[in-house]
Design brief:
The protein has 281 residues and is of the alpha/beta class. Helices cover 41% and strands 25% of the residues. Strands 3, 4, 5, 6, 7, 8, 9, 10, 11 and 12 form a 10-stranded mixed β-sheet that branches. A two-stranded antiparallel sheet has the order 1-2.
């Protein structure tokens, strides 16, 4: 209650009175005790979900009545770290210059975490990814927009020397090594296991970490090999081995709840993400 009051610039008592009045109108309790705090009841959570849709519809109606009105509002975005750096932060800079009334609230999360937040209506937009060899399955209630694709390579120590050939041949060359995969997402591990299986061996998954920079540090320390984005600068002593036949491709997506794309601030952010990814028409 106190945090809501601070955010809305009203007293805690005012917040409590307004929620009590809303509960009387709804005919059911909307909050319940949670220790020294309160939390939404299931009915309160459902009403909060409707409120987001209603407010978005009001904003769309306002724009329809006044098409020249500039988008305004806070768009809550959950995105994986690379997307934050390469997509979200450029959008922040563009908004600051051209649309200062639109603000992004950024949450760094891996895809499953972001989709969970989207389902709970804790964010308005989720930037997620999958791999061509480990495709994601999205709920039908969600709208997804592809944001390009990126080739991935196998990161190995440079001291290994020249290694060439198909992805299967490259993987076979490192079949006796330990492998490093993501600790918060299973997609790259699924890719590693798929390609290794095609190459005729079972990879020894030894390490799980959440940072691409840490993957490179561990490769340099001789702890194994792992997937890394192609074309990105790497530390001295790390080499990116191209993977083809089959390719390993990461595919980022912008994901929103169905029916939300007309909300002007969110529509603007989606358009800017398309422009940054080079997919805008």
């Amino acid at each position: 209650m106190r945090e809501v009051g601070e955010s809305m610039h009203v007293t805690t008592s005012t917040v409590s009175q307004q929620i009590a009045a809303l509960a009387r109108e709804a005919g059911t309790p909307l909050t319940e005790p949670d220790g020294r705090r309160v939390r939404l009841t299931p009915a309160g959570q459902r009403l909060a979900g409707h409120a987001v849709t209603i407010l978005a519809a009001l904003e769309a109606a306002r724009l329809d009545l006044d098409p020249a009105a500039a988008p305004a509002g806070t768009v809550r975005v959950a995105a994986f770290a690379t997307a934050v750096r390469e997509s979200v932060l450029p959008v922040v800079r563009i908004l600051a210059e051209r649309h200062p009334a639109v603000v992004l609230a950024i949450h760094e999360h891996e895809p499953d975490e972001s989709l969970g937040l989207l389902a709970d209506d804790a964010v308005d937009l989720a930037l997620t990814y999958d791999y061509n060899l480990a495709p994601a399955r999205f709920d039908r209630s969600l709208d997804t927009q592809p944001l390009g694709r990126r080739q991935w390579s196998l990161g190995t120590p440079a001291a290994q020397g020249r290694v060439a050939g198909t992805a299967l041949e490259v993987f076979r060359r490192f079949a006796d090594r330990d492998w490093i995969v993501n600790s918060r997402n299973s997609g790259d591990e699924e890719v590693v296991r798929t390609v290794a299986s095609l190459a005729g061996f079972q990879p020894r998954i030894m390490h799980r970490v959440d940072s691409l920079e840490l993957v490179q540090d561990m490769i340099l320390a001789g702890l194994g090999v792992g997937l890394l984005p192609a074309g990105r600068p790497v530390r001295r002593g790390v080499v990116l081995r191209p993977l083809g036949q089959p390719d390993v491709t990461q595919r980022p997506f912008a994901v929103i709840r169905g029916g939300r794309s007309a909300w002007p601030p969110l529509a603007l952010v989606l358009r800017l993400l398309q422009e940054i990814s080079g997919l805008a028409g």
